[in-house]
Design a protein that fits this description.
728 residues; alpha+beta; disordered N terminus
């Protein structure tokens, strides 16, 4: 599950349909590291004033992360919710009066959409900051504060999404624009404005605006409970991950560990109280945090250790544990099915897909089956090759789930003559960032400049960067980068989230959060990235660039907003392709000790290994996609009219495994209990989006690869046409 935990999901705010999506995926340059001199803040949400006593109420600049604590949450949210509620009532009253007039132009874009945007902005901004901190600096006090205010935010969201005057005003805006065209005049809404209004109407329909009385009350109660369950689910996964620790004391137990894993596990042991732990002598503490888990499964010679750690990972937050998510999984599915029934939809999958490119479950199933027919034979052949390889090298036992990563890595080393550890030496974080930022500069004519002194951060490892337009010198956007894993307070995975979005009405520029979970530096050893971590960094940067480089003037269509969910992964996967572009990789891949560039021979091996075990990897993705879709649509198990007809969600997983997996999962596999994309994020009946967008991104990258990086005019033309990217 780790390879696909580095993905794109929603923050708690967006779980209830409130703010922009957080982009969650598959988990400072030396030249540009200079600090930019502090100047006037350009990301203000309001005119500059003296800092508020409560930092969450200070919206004149970037968040004051250095001073925000849990005690600020409830007072700030209470004040902002009160202002929002009063403002919405005033807006509805004014709209009701205007709607009684038949005179065209009584309602305008400014009087409806921009007014609502200004009304929502303070609450969205501050609640977004709180939600962000729960993911990167979690604490019991912050969790409690977040859970206290979340129901109130959900209610506020429902109040405007179910506002009849607002819905009628949107319809009037469309009608007035159409009438102007019929009369031979210019439309009163431009294309982007029309899309925003039409999208808002579709969203309101799915938010229950047409429901009345008990049906609407039940719908809102479901929405509230789902938000609470999503928070609980996410907290349980984090708690279950950080609660596990296995101390190893003998060199035999750590046989096969590469130096980076020995250093990482010794540091974990020291942090747990063994102050004298060293990479050479131990003890070594194994955790379920991503960098540790993946490296151990690929390298540990001790088969019993691999089995023990695999079982712990596969049952995280499972039934009977201290952080049991199994009942939450079932309850979430029941509530989503009930929500779909209230909306008159066949299933929750139909609700989810109503605003995606695929449109309906049949289209997704057709894609899954076509890819499955091609991937299954390849996966079976790859598994057979692994079995033979393991047997030839002395494994007498049948190949088990905890053997596959280990022998896959050994076989890859034999076939392509390189190891992950050998590659890691060429990818120190600072150099990777140099290359990434140089690529961004080349593609989009923006310099990425470190500017830590201009923003407070929530941790010392977090960097703050500005994007400066090469042609004008204008600051176009900014972002925070939080690169390293912190299992005690930071949730697993990698994601992009929104601090502020571009808005002409608010005079606001975009600021993003880019969050990864790579292994941190240990002692004098710099942070060395595994190649998969390089891909993750490029992936999240792709999401960030879509958010930050948008030229759209209106907040609700700028950047990642109003992009169909199954297309939103296009820029991120497009950026990943550059990790296999020779010129790009050679520009930054240098040995951290010698400075020698990555040898051409080693890059050729890396490129040749790109499709290694692609059948197994694809089939695994298809299982996740099909399971997600089945649980939300094709199975009758969780529909209110047929309670329990199909058994438990785990029965559905087991039933699908023979068709979509070449090795049966463990009988006690609890994967669903940590499937945060679906149960604590925005991917319900949407996990297939990675596969869908991969096709689009491959086509887009091919056009850039064909043009090359030397022709600036070609690059400008292509980036303006990059589908769904918002870069134009």
């Amino acid at each position: 599950t780790m390879a696909h935990a580095r993905r794109f999901t929603l923050c708690a705010a967006a779980l209830v349909g409130w703010t922009s999506a957080a982009l969650h995926t598959r988990v400072p340059t030396a030249a540009l590291r200079r600090t930019v001199s502090s100047g006037a803040r350009t990301h203000a949400l309001a005119s500059a004033t003296a800092p508020a006593a409560n930092p969450l109420l200070d919206q004149a600049a970037l968040p004051r992360f250095g001073t925000i604590d849990a005690s600020h949450v409830q007072p700030a949210m209470s004040e902002l919710l009160g202002e929002f509620t009063r403002g919405l009532r005033a807006l509805e009253a004014d709209l009701s009066v205007a709607l009684r007039s038949d005179q065209p132009g009584t309602l305008t874009w400014a009087s409806v959409v921009e007014r609502l945007e200004r009304l929502r902005a303070p609450l969205e901004y501050s609640y977004g900051v709180v939600s962000h901190l729960t993911g990167v600096k979690s604490s019991d006090a912050l969790r409690d504060a977040h859970q206290q205010v979340q129901p109130l935010v959900v209610e506020a969201m429902s109040s405007f999404q179910q506002s009849r005057p607002l819905c009628d005003a949107y319809r009037r805006l469309i009608a007035d624009s159409d009438a102007a065209v019929v009369a031979g005049d210019a439309p009163t809404l431009d294309d982007a404005q029309r899309r925003i209004v039409q999208s808002a109407l579709a969203e309101m329909e799915l938010a229950g605006v047409a429901l009345e009385g008990e049906a609407q009350a039940r719908f809102n109660a479901i929405k509230l409970e789902l938000a609470e369950l999503a928070t609980t689910f996410s907290n349980h996964v984090l708690d279950a991950t950080k609660a596990y620790g296995l101390e190893l004391t003998s060199r035999e137990q750590v046989a096969g560990f590469p130096p980076s894993l020995l250093a990482m596990t010794a540091a974990a042991a020291a942090a747990a109280g063994n102050a004298h732990a060293t990479a050479e002598a131990g003890p070594w503490r194994v955790t379920l945090d991503g960098p540790c888990y993946v490296s151990l499964m690929q390298s540990a010679s001790d088969r019993s250790l691999r089995e023990r750690v695999y079982r712990a990972y596969a049952t995280r937050a499972g039934a009977g544990s201290a952080f049991d998510n199994s009942a939450t999984v079932r309850r979430v599915l029941e509530l989503r099915a009930s929500m779909a029934a209230l909306l008159g939809r066949e299933s929750y999958a139909h609700v989810s897909l109503a605003r995606k490119m695929a449109g309906e479950p049949a289209a997704v199933n057709a894609l899954i089956e076509r890819v499955r027919d091609a991937a299954r034979p390849a996966a079976e052949a790859e598994l057979g090759e692994l079995r033979a390889f393991a047997a030839e090298r002395g494994q007498a036992e049948p190949l088990a789930l905890w053997d596959v990563p280990y022998w896959a890595e050994r076989r890859r080393e034999a076939l392509f003559a390189f190891s992950d550890e050998e590659l890691r030496a060429y990818f120190p974080l600072e150099r990777v960032l140099d290359g990434l930022f140089a690529l961004v500069d080349k593609l989009f004519s923006v310099a990425v400049v470190r500017a830590d002194g201009e923003a407070e951060a929530w941790h010392a490892d977090v960097g703050y960067y500005k994007l400066i337009d090469r042609a004008t010198g204008e600051e176009r956007a900014a972002f925070f980068l939080d690169p390293y894993a912190r299992p005690a307070e930071k949730r697993p995975g990698a994601w992009m989230d929104v601090c502020t979005g571009r808005s002409e009405a608010l005079g606001r520029k975009p600021v993003a959060y880019l969050t990864c979970n790579s292994a941190p530096p240990v002692g004098e050893m710099p942070a060395l990235l595994a190649f998969r971590d390089v891909q993750t960094l490029f992936h999240e940067t792709g999401h960030g660039l879509q958010h930050m480089l948008t030229r759209v003037r209106y907040a609700d269509a700028a950047g990642i907003n109003n992009v169909e969910w199954d297309a939103v992964e296009l820029p991120s996967q497009w950026m990943e392709n550059w990790c296999y572009h020779r010129e790009t990789v050679r520009s930054f891949a240098r040995h951290y000790k010698t400075g020698e560039p990555l040898p051409d021979e080693l890059f050729d091996k890396l490129a040749a290994a790109r499709t290694y075990n692609a059948g197994l990897a694809t089939l695994r993705q298809l299982l996740f996609s099909k399971l997600d879709l089945e649980l939300h649509g094709d199975s009758n198990a969780f529909r209110p009219s047929q309670p329990g007809a199909g058994g438990s969600p785990f029965d559905v997983q087991r039933a699908l495994a023979p068709r979509y997996a070449v090795l049966e999962p463990l009988p006690d596999d609890m994967f669903l209990c940590s499937f945060a994309h679906v149960f604590a994020g925005g991917y319900a009946a949407g996990y297939y989006s990675y596969l869908w967008a991969e096709v689009l991104s491959a086509d887009a990258f091919a056009a850039f690869e064909e043009a090359g990086l030397a022709d600036d005019s070609q690059l400008r033309r292509l980036r303006a046409r990059l589908p769904g990217a918002g870069f134009a």
